[in-house]
């Protein structure tokens, strides 16, 4: 297949998206060029666009970090990866290879070069870190050692959301240390991460309390995703009591997975998690704080363990669950030119499951 000189991309410049053509990069040492077929739209990219976090993102910046595609060319030192291989490109797209999500030489979609921030380091590896390595494009550079191997037979559109949302919630559930038969509350259950979290939790033998807003999300959680209970935070008058009541003994869930995009649940979860339970903050709403009473926290022996994407091992495990047909979360396909429409829905909290960009549209 001939690789074009130019490609379409959604470029965030000055806090606005510009749909335009940019050069297709060439892979350097240790890099592969991936023809992105599908790319999931994660709320993280919308946070970056809005400047929601304590540091400014690169400008220009191309979002997208759930890319599923095919290797179309490769640089030197990429043994083991061949042209034609099906791979996934993730949020952490360049690491020191010591199996951590927090090594210094790594790159994520914020790719802030030369600032000393945690996302830096490898800016020298790729020629143009802000533009070259993202999945809001048709072609994207990736570190050969960091790409995920997509198992044979996977539906490439359906697998795309696993590459951030799936890995992240799978790792979060492991972090909660919930055991089969125990109960986990998933807060933000109707969104991209939440819908996958419900599926992974069921596959891991857990009972699920899904918490989100609106009837559609309740219907999807109970009828499609296997939740045991749905609590509508827009209707509940006492969310702490409602969550506790949803467990058979009234003591609350053993784990809480926080993937909501608003801060309130991060202040409430410590009140309804059961004694010895674990609260796992994952969502990244702006200006959010985790809150817990010291007195009740000590008496309950509360654990709060934040969780950040996942390692290469978590990736392989999360993909294995998917390849075995255990994870079927709803997604809708749209064209790259329609990205702004998804962001508008995200802003209103109206995304049901995941939107996936179909690069052929
Ligand atoms: P999304 O927009 O698809 O879903 C967010 C959901 O939260 C929506 O369904 C919304 O209705 C719900 N919500 C908002 N306020 C709520 C409340 N008070 N109670 C219950 N539910 C509420 O977003 P997403 O793509 O699933 O991402 C979720 C969050 O996870 C984002 O903040 C994202 O940046 C973050 N994230 C973190 C990591 C990590 O490694 N820690 C990885 C990926 C995404
Ligand atoms: Zn993400």
TrEMBL record:
<dbReference type="InterPro" id="IPR013154">
    <property type="entry name" value="ADH-like_N"/>
</dbReference>
<dbReference type="InterPro" id="IPR036291">
    <property type="entry name" value="NAD(P)-bd_dom_sf"/>
</dbReference>
<dbReference type="GO" id="GO:0004022">
    <property type="term" value="F:alcohol dehydrogenase (NAD+) activity"/>
</dbReference>
<dbReference type="GO" id="GO:0005737">
    <property type="term" value="C:cytoplasm"/>
</dbReference>
<keyword id="KW-0560">Oxidoreductase</keyword>
<dbReference type="InterPro" id="IPR013149">
    <property type="entry name" value="ADH-like_C"/>
</dbReference>
<protein>
    <recommendedName>
        <fullName>alcohol dehydrogenase</fullName>
        <ecNumber>1.1.1.1</ecNumber>
    </recommendedName>
</protein>
<feature type="domain" description="Enoyl reductase (ER)">
    <location>
        <begin position="14"/>
        <end position="357"/>
    </location>
</feature>
<dbReference type="Pfam" id="PF08240">
    <property type="entry name" value="ADH_N"/>
</dbReference>
<dbReference type="InterPro" id="IPR020843">
    <property type="entry name" value="ER"/>
</dbReference>
<keyword id="KW-0479">Metal-binding</keyword>
<dbReference type="InterPro" id="IPR011032">
    <property type="entry name" value="GroES-like_sf"/>
</dbReference>
<dbReference type="GO" id="GO:0046872">
    <property type="term" value="F:metal ion binding"/>
</dbReference>
<keyword id="KW-0862">Zinc</keyword>
<keyword id="KW-0520">NAD</keyword>
<dbReference type="Pfam" id="PF00107">
    <property type="entry name" value="ADH_zinc_N"/>
</dbReference>
<comment type="similarity">
    <text>Belongs to the zinc-containing alcohol dehydrogenase family.</text>
</comment>
